[in-house]
């Protein structure tokens, strides 16, 4: 099988490595089957899509809806690099799955309205499949409603033209969408289990997602959550697009 590619943007080594292990584990991939590029550490290399089965993008501390003058040079470069890659990925309808930051990257690239209207605090929320989601192969095997971990400052308010809504939540109408046939973005995190979320709460306690003094409370709520279905999406993505 050709490897998959994970594009990461987390500067903290512990967060970046935890994310990589989660995509590997829940995708059912061996280390040699999941290559990683840390886009925050330097320009994206020239990537030949023919070398990969598909591309996944992890979460990010970056918010694409931030005013340009408030973005760091690193963020602006990352956005240019990923945007250039998406030019080719979208044109080829090449298998793509973006988790959380995927909404900001793929959505923005395709003309979605991305803003802070539907931000959600860190924790588990009930996700409901749309009719199109229930019929989509990437969501095969999932119940019509399931809990997933979220935690984001921005979200999609208006879908891009031609996008298909696959899943929603009461507090965030766009939790997952598809562009064309093979391009997907989720607002929730299909790669996160309880341990993974607790690690991120600890690492990002001063990042503005919640008052730092409440970190233990957020960890306690995470431990009480029952999140088991979202990782199926990663397994379905690997199963569907893994190629020799």
TrEMBL record:
For this protein, the record's PROSITE patterns field holds: GATASE_TYPE_1 (PS51273)
Pfam families noted in UniProt: GATase (PF00117)
Question: Is Lipid biosynthesis found in the keyword set?
Answer: no
Keyword terms of this UniProt record: Glutamine amidotransferase
The UniProt entry, under InterPro entries, shows:
ChyE-like, Class_I_gatase-like, GATASE
CDD domains the record matches: GATase1_1
Instruction: Tell me which Gene3D superfamilies the record gives.
Output: 3.40.50.880
The chain positions of domain Glutamine amidotransferase read 49-192
> Looking at the keywords, is Amino-acid biosynthesis present?
no
Which PANTHER family has this protein been placed in? GLUTAMINE AMIDOTRANSFERASE YLR126C-RELATED
Put simply, this protein is called: Glutamine amidotransferase
């Amino acid at each position: 099988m050709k490897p998959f590619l994970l594009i990461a943007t987390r500067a903290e080594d512990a967060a970046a490595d935890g994310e990589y292990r989660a995509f590997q584990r829940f995708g059912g991939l061996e280390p040699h089957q999941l290559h990683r590029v840390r886009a925050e550490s330097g320009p994206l290399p020239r990537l030949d899509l023919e070398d990969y089965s598909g591309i996944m993008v992890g979460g990010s501390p970056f918010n694409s809806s931030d005013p340009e003058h408030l973005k760091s040079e690193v963020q602006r470069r990352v956005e240019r690099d990923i945007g250039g890659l998406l030019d080719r990925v979208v044109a080829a309808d090449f298998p793509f799955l973006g988790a959380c930051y995927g909404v900001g990257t793929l959505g923005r690239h395709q003309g979605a309205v991305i803003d802070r209207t539907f931000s959600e605090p860190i924790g588990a929320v009930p996700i409901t499949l749309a009719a199109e989601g229930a019929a989509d192969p990437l969501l095969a095997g999932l119940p019509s409603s399931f809990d997933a971990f979220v935690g984001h400052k921005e979200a999609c308010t208006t879908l891009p033209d031609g996008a298909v809504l696959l899943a929603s939540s009461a507090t965030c109408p766009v939790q997952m969408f598809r562009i064309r046939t093979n391009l997907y973005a989720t607002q929730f995190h299909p790669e996160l289990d309880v341990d993974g979320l607790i690690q991120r709460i600890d690492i990002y306690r001063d990042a503005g997602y919640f008052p730092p003094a409440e970190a233990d409370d957020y960890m306690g709520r995470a431990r009480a959550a029952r999140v088991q279905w979202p990782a199926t999406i990663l397994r379905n993505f690997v199963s569907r697009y893994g190629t020799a």
